[in-house]
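Need tokens for this chain, all 159 residues.
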Amino acid sequence: MKIRSIAVAAALCAGVAGSALAATAADSHSHGHGTVKLQLDAGKKWATDEALRRSMGGIREAMAASLQDIHRNRMSAQAYDALSKSVEGEVARIVAECKLDPKADEQLHVVLADVLDGVERMAGKAKGKSRRSGADKVAGALASYAKYFDDPGFKPLAH
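Here are the structure tokens for all 159 residues:
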């Protein structure tokens, strides 16, 4: 599964191994040593790099372009498929260009796990989960990114 391979690559990017590989894609965000919860870096937002800011901005823009149709329940399965592929592509770019401090990277993986869960739902691959719930999951991940990562130009979705 393409999404799982991105999650595995994300875990490898952070330099974690073993049970953390599977856990990166799981809702628990466990990295083999307990649950990783989003937190600030000693009261400050985590540093970002240009590649991360560009790709997270791309995810935001893709979601924003579809937001009205999502809210009005006018998104077709094909539109959700296209949106999920667009978001998945941006996550792949983040993984490929990963250059964060290990602690910031670990925090980013919590956000990316939620994005990937949302992608899977939007693609119709999460049994018992609606495509719209996937869009909501990605929107929540974008809000978390804005709250915990230093990206001055980034604004969470207004939904």
